[in-house]
Amino acid sequence: MRNLEIGTIRRDNNNKSQYLQTPVGISTFNFLPMSTLTSLSKIKCNDSQFGAFINGSWTGMIGDVIKGAADIALGRVMMRNLSDYVNFSPELYPIQFDVIHRKLEQHGWDYRFYLQPLHVEIWLCVFAISLIVILVKILVNNVVSKNNLACCVLNFFNDLLLCWPIVLQDTFKNFSLKSMKFVFGIYVTFSMLLLMSYTSILTSYLATTDVMIPFSSLEEMLEKTNFLPVILKGAKFEVLFQNPPYENKRVIRADSIIQAVDLISNGKMAFLGPMMPVQLLIRGNCSFDVAPERISRDSVTIAYSKNFAYVDYFNFKILLLKQCGISSVEYKRVTSAIFSDWLRCPQSLFNPVSFSRIIGPFLVLMSGLLISLVVGIFELIIHKFTMM
Questions:
Q1: Closest of 6, 43, 10, 72 to residue 234, by C-alpha
Q2: Which of 308, 363, 358, 367 is CA-nearest to residue 116?
Q3: Cα dist. 154→147, 148, 159, 164 in Å?
Q4: Any residues with CB less than 8 A from the CB of 71 and at least 6 apart, and which?
Q5: What is its main location (predicted)?
Q6: pLDDT tens readout for residues 154-213
Q7: Structure pTM?
């Protein structure tokens, strides 16, 4: 067999193609009987791109394969508009394209944050128990003092607006009926339980980290936010920003994964691409996250030149590796090693909560009591001067 020329993008410091270290190289070329080949050479493409149709011609590895400079290109995503120019092998492994962005800081909360534990059910309980106690108080006053209906209605509205426990306690202590004291005891107990429930819910809200999700999908990012998309030059998403509706959208083109990671680390940008090479680069860094909705899920294949004479041979070996389970085992082994650090990143952090952050309800209660006391004193003073 003649010399086989493989198109690659770039070489690292160890003089190995970085894309031969992915499951493509492991599951295919480590197991193919390459001894049947006379020699194997790797051709570095000049523009260091995967390949896209730009300005009427194909760039990158695909361009080299079409022009005959290389026989095959590794790590190519199967695309419909390429079928007229190259042949594709069966799927080597699946690849998922996501919107990768830097994790944002947790939500800043204001004073309205303290209203979140006050659900509708709590407000209904407060209103119901207060109304019951006030109605019982009005009923007792009407029976004992035999007030007329107008006076009862007036007292009802006064007590409804000033239904502090201390006001009710001052009224109920004048009665010798133990049932009335029992009603007030239930009211005070209910108030304390309600306050404890509110404090508990507030503590859980304060302790749970609330990470802001800037967008849920690529469409939402492009249409509703000011995040700039970052793509690799000559890669899959070149065609997205050449056609409507995003042909006029500003886009940042990175020369490599390293440059793309630097861009999204230092600016309000998001990288459109697979998480695997990013995670392979950052390892244990937990500063990045992906949007909930993926962009697409594609198949990574080998692109053959139209003149390549050994397509059937390579396809047969690839299918044989898949049938024996070698490809899937190698893919799982490599991906689990790459994503092990990312899976260890904490997904739900808990913040320590100090007593000063949950003492607010007690301060509100005491403030209300003091205000009612001050208002009552002024009312007594005004009433005393008016009677003179």
A1: 10
A2: 358
A3: 11, 10, 9, 17
A4: 4, 5, 6, 65, 304, 305, 308
A5: membrane
A6: 666 666 665 555 455 555 555 556 666 676 677 777 777 888 888 888 888 777 766 677
A7: 0.59
